[in-house]
Amino acid sequence: MDASDAARYFAPLASARYIALTTFRRSGAAVSTPVWFAERDGTLYVYTDAEAGKVKRLRHTARVTVAPCTATGVVRGPALDARGRIVTNDAEARVARAALARRYGFQWRALAAFNGLMRAIRRHADEAGDAYLAMERP
User: Domain count of the chain?
Assistant: First the structure.
């Protein structure tokens, strides 16, 4: 499958401002979170804190679903199955960051500045920092 096939798969999400990213606990229970996202070459990218529950859940299962939703998580369309992973490559993290910045503009820059300020205030040696997640067609 090429990137254009994957982009077509995720096309129902293109006009959504948020997606409900659903990850799964070891018990199989679904946990859904509304998140910003950006598509690049058939991959959906999401930004989160490295300590977030969704990151922990992705460590044990790549199974996720994504659906268009409101900022409060009210789903507004059908869910698509996807395979999620934590981005570990610095070059891909830059691609994800650029895609999100392009999609959300000023709001993205404000969020990045706020997160940087909060990190400087906390200055915990054990703080994990930022994480980017990638969702791909199964």
Answer: 1
